[in-house]
Amino acid sequence: MDDYALVLNAGSSSLKFCVFRRPVAAQWLLESRGQIEGIGTSPRLLARDSDSQVIAECDLSADVRDGDSAIDALACWLRSKYGKARVVAVGHRVVHGGTLYAQPTIITAEVLADLYSLVPLAPLHQPHNLAAIQAVFEHLPGVPQVACFDTGFHMGRPHIAGIIPLPMSIRKTGLRRYGFHGLSYEYVTSTLAEIAPEIATRRTIIAHLGSGASLCAVDGGKSVDTSMSFTALDGLCMGTRPGTIDPGVVLYLFQTLGLTEKEVEDILYKQSGLLGISGISNDMRDLLGSRAPEARLAVDYFVYRAAKEIGALAAVLGGIDGFVFTAGIGENSPEVRRRICEACSWLGLELDLKANSTGEQRISTPRSKVSTWVVPTNEELMIARHTGSLLGLATPALTR
Hints:
With 400 residues, this protein is of the alpha/beta class.
């Protein structure tokens, strides 16, 4: 009987999953990945095998109403697909670990209660992460679960990098710069010794550029600082989030425009960023393909903000030796990579235009002072690694 580990990333309207198989060699191999999307509206299941071939695509409108029923539907599909195979562990992406949890943790009732106490720090993400954990307890009783935290990678930063300069009485409530996308940064740094050994232990900036976007300054494989802060709203311009804005703007929305808390939250999380500037789309591909001046302005601002934040993190590091692009835009947009590299040429970064346009991993010239790379991220594999290691189910080195 084959053993499987399930990795879940639960959101407000989607449940992403990966199935990893443990063969005799004790190395987790990707078996399938997919998602149930449109939860609450028009739920559908789409799954692909390890070669990206579609193995399931179906309408779940009759069965899925919420996150709990999505877990039930996924469990039914897993049983139909993998028969009598055994799920030996479930690993979860949990956005927030607060100051209590810096490392992956086996989930108990006490741990779950602690994580629920952190919901006010990530109200749009944490409840859905935890609801998936609760649903697994109900549908797969006895299967151990592991929480892996997006904030964890940044917890070892210098103390000063976490400070928000408000009164101590307020900071004691948990107000600090946490940083996110930690699982992505951890995975990328774990690959550098093999892919780009010349920068693996040196001063490097990693750019996680997707619908959610951030930067991380890494030295010796450890996070030194990052562009996101108390929430995932800070830092770079994103698909629908503004990145850094004057806090007075938020006061203006409340005091002068008279908007409600829900309206302001909706503006900051769903209507701003690339979508807000362009009025066209939050998708960089749409904007790069458009001739509309508003689309060009949105792309220009995205690059401008990235270059500005890169300069700030370079100052924190005292200069950089390496630069890495990852995530959806970072991995797939030669145009955005080119423009950011050109804006950062003052750092000694010299782009190899051909390598960049043809999808090479190293995209800097041999004479560039800053070694520049494109490294695909794999947060799910990072979660599988932690889950297997913590539960004694697999060796730390995994493949695919």
